[in-house]
């Protein structure tokens, strides 16, 4: 894992940016995933630089562009999953490092991003995937992105408790969102061929216990290729490292640790000699595809390894979502004892 973290660090720009690979595109969600892996590997300074790079580029409305290259916006669309995910990174870096100064710096950006997410919530409880050009929320909601936002809102509530603040709008939003994720599939666009829609509600802690195990068991044979990992989409002979390791995180949440270890082991055929990971493998053709080794694929491996091993104080974020404040409550009594000191 130290070699993998070093491989991620090698792709980081001098300005702190964390693209998919050096010279490639950068999107906020995947950059945050890679920053979390740096924190797991003890590279807190690099993780902090990545978070500060993102915070400096947040727009006034709380959004980020969907894509950057060389620091410039190349896809300006406003997408809710990008707006919300800094909350997960900020809570993770607090657990991993206890860096109060960094969390204090990030809190205003987290708050603006989650306020935008709440503004994008639809009547169903689901959150719109993007804003239209006129600034109104699109009517479409995506299941994976919404599950990620469920986790982000809960992390935001935890950070608010750390700041000595309450965010009742976030608590109401996450309650409605959780209900939609668990019981209203019609609230989301049908992307059931994608494995992320299968496991992400479990990974994010929206579906737990017996329901989580039933959900993972129901489509196991559609998505899992024995000995290779998980397909990205059910109808393509293509396994991908990030989806396999995210499935492993969901399996940890569901209490199926042996199956999680098996999946992390199965995808090691994607490992490169330098510790980086190829994105995917088309197994009938015995071919890597796409021909790239992405920071976020390597990051998913690191986060899965941490959740399984409990190696860092941040491992519980993905291993035990119940450690976060319960949706719809303001109970922050279990938070670290610096309440009131992290201010926006």
From TrEMBL:
<dbReference type="InterPro" id="IPR012341">
    <property type="entry name" value="6hp_glycosidase-like_sf"/>
</dbReference>
<protein>
    <recommendedName>
        <fullName>Prenyltransferase and squalene oxidase repeat-containing protein</fullName>
    </recommendedName>
</protein>
<dbReference type="InterPro" id="IPR008928">
    <property type="entry name" value="6-hairpin_glycosidase_sf"/>
</dbReference>
<feature type="region of interest" description="Disordered">
    <location>
        <begin position="323"/>
        <end position="344"/>
    </location>
</feature>
<dbReference type="GO" id="GO:0005975">
    <property type="term" value="P:carbohydrate metabolic process"/>
</dbReference>
């Amino acid at each position: 894992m130290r070699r993998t973290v070093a491989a991620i660090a090698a792709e980081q720009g001098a300005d702190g940016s964390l693209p998919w690979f050096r010279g490639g595109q950068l999107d906020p969600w995947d950059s945050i995933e890679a920053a979390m892996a740096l924190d797991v590997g003890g590279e807190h300074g690099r993780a902090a630089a990545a978070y500060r790079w993102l915070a400096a580029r947040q727009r006034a409305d709380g959004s980020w562009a969907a894509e950057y290259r060389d620091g410039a916006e190349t896809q300006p669309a406003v997408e809710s999953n990008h707006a919300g995910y800094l909350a997960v990174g900020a809570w993770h870096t607090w657990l991993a490092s206890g860096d109060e100064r960094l969390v204090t710096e990030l809190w205003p950006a987290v708050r603006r991003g989650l306020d935008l997410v709440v503004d994008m919530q639809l009547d169903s409880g689901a959150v719109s995937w993007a804003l239209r050009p006129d600034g109104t929320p699109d009517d479409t909601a995506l299941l994976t992105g919404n599950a990620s936002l469920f986790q982000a809102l809960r992390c935001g509530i935890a950070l608010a408790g750390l700041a000595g603040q309450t965010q009742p709008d976030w608590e109401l939003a996450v309650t409605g969102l959780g209900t939609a994720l668990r019981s209203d599939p019609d609230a989301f666009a049908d992307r059931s061929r994608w494995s992320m829609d299968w496991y992400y509600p479990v990974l994010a802690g929206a579906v737990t216990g017996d329901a989580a195990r039933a959900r993972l068991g129901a489509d196991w044979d559609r998505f899992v290729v024995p000995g290779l990992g998980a397909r990205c989409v059910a109808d393509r002979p293509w396994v991908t490292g990030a989806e396999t390791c995210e499935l492993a995180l969901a399996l940890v949440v569901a209490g199926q640790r042996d199956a999680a270890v098996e999946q992390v082991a199965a995808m090691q055929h994607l490992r490169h000699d330098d510790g980086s990971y190829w994105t995917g493998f088309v197994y009938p053709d015995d071919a890597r595809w796409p021909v790239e080794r992405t920071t976020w694929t390597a990051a998913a491996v690191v986060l899965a390894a941490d959740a399984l091993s409990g190696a860092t104080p941040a491992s519980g974020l993905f291993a035990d979502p119940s450690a976060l404040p319960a949706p719809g409550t303001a109970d922050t009594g279990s938070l670290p004892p610096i309440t009131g000191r992290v201010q926006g």
